Amino acid sequence: KCRGLDHEAIIRDPDNQIWLGLTPALIKAIRRFTPVQDRDALLLYIMKKSPLMRIRGHGSYVTFEFSSDGEYKPLDAIRKWAKKNAGPATVLNIVNFVSGHFTAISVLPHQLKKVVSLRAQQ
User: Fold this and answer.
1) What is the largest CA-CA distance in the chain?
2) Model-level pTM?
3) How far apart are CA 12 and CA 67, in angstroms?
4) Torsions phi, psi for 121 (to 5 deg)
5) Residue 122 CA from chain centroid, whole number
6) pLDDT tens profile 56-97
């Protein structure tokens, strides 16, 4: 539902804010960020304050960005997405801003099952 070219515009749209289940306090906080100028700060803030994941497609690779103390739910969501949408040549870049962990993995069934924690990939 919230697809588009610009993640900032998507998150600033009141209909999307409601659809995503953002709290009234979070919606109010969004207004403190100057459009365009504070784009990156806003997107990081939103990911830290809500259970949202940013997904960016780049042709043969897809980047998943989130902020989470726990990694099981985000990784489960990524696995589900990959099973439905990715082919064997797709590379997944997975970034957790809380832990600072990053991993890149190709979408092969045996590899995807091994990604139980980003910490194990370090």
Assistant:
1) 45
2) 0.76
3) 19
4) -85, -10
5) 20
6) 888 888 999 999 888 788 888 888 888 888 887 888 899 998
